[in-house]
Amino acid sequence: MQYPDRLYRFDQEGNKIEPDQPMLALWQWVERFQNEYARQNHSPLTIIEYGYDLAGLVVYLRNKKILDFNDVDDLVLRDYLDYLRISQDLAAQTMNRHLSTFRSFFRFLLEQRIVEQNPAASIRYARLGKTSGGHTYLLQSEAAQLLQVADNQSRFAKRDLAMIALMLFCGLRISEVAGLNKSDIRWGEKKLIVRGKGNKIRELPLNDYVLKILHDYLQVRPEPNPGKKLKPGSTPIEHARKALAEKDGSAQDALFVSSHLRRISTRGIRDAVDRAMEHVELEDSGKRITPHKLRHTFATLLYLNGADINVLKELLGHADLSSTQIYAAVDQQHMQQAIHKHPLLPEQKEKDGELQ
Q1: CA 27, CA 328: separation in Å to the nearest integer?
Q2: Each residue of 320-345: pLDDT tens digit?
């Protein structure tokens, strides 16, 4: 049976070591939890993300010789969350996602009478600061830097540049980038076909600059391996991956391919953005940029340069205008600056007089 990569270890010669029985005893409850969420029609991507988060917890517990979920209290979870925050430098929003996963999982175990209490329930969510959970985006100069450095990073430079360009120039969600197929590029019409939330399809215009980036990437795109068919006894994560594959199309059709010659995952896209952002000099060093912040950057820069809010709604694929109106708020500082530079102000008259 195939398990998530995080459950495997490797010996000194690089051979894969199967998860041991104590680890699998913990993991079986994760699979039951995933099965329950699948039965409730949660999205395959949610099930995969939950599995990834919980696989990390299972490995941590096994290493700490904690072999029963009933022995996990809030102190154990706090220690693990601190370990994640420090070792992976996670933002508050990502930490809160992990905590939400743990709350849901232990609530399930409580309902199944496997544990006597939910240890995650007493842990508070991290406070989201201005740069971690607010409307964070790249300034125009910072976005230009990102495009430049992305073109010089790693052996996957052209792929990473193409993915980042689609988020900055088209406002794509990370899941939309991962789900793109080669056939979604309509070269003659200069359009991109995007499948968004709820399988809603929208057509986005592509400028010549992005088309050239995509063309250059396709010249070096590796040929993916054909996907393996899942066996009847496969795990919930594999079923979720199969559902995503059926929705997005086969690996052969995938526009963006991972180093494992499969359709790139959302985690692979995050890693690509993180690699490139390490070389971008930000005015605010505390600002954390994720793929979704590149989508924010796209919409914010367009709005600040005069794009109509209704046009942004269509480009972003928002179902409701209220979701788009957050971009109107970012212009407050610019409006304040304009008010303070009103030409009728005495100090402005003095400046104007000096210039004449």
Answers
A1: 46
A2: 777 777 776 665 555 555 566 556 66
Class of domain 140-321: mainly alpha
d(CA 42, CA 185): 29
Q: Mutual orientation of helices 140-150 and 157-170 as an angle, nearest 10°?
A: 160
Cβ 17 vs Cβ 52: under 8 Å: no
Q: Do 2 and 55 meet the contact criterion of CB atoms below 8 Å apart?
A: no
DSSP character at residue 287:
-
Contact (CB, 8 A) for 6 and 16: no
Is 116 in contact with 69 (CB distance < 8 Å)? no
Tell me the mean pLDDT in the region 135-160: 85
Side-chain-side CA neighbours of residue 239 (13 Å): 16
d(CA 335, CA 331): 6
Tell me if the domain spanning 5-111 has CATH number 1.10.150.130.
yes
pLDDT in tens, 35-49: 888 788 777 777 888
Every domain of the chain and the residues it spans: 5-111, 140-321
- Quickly state the pLDDT bin for 355 (edges 50, 70, 90): very low
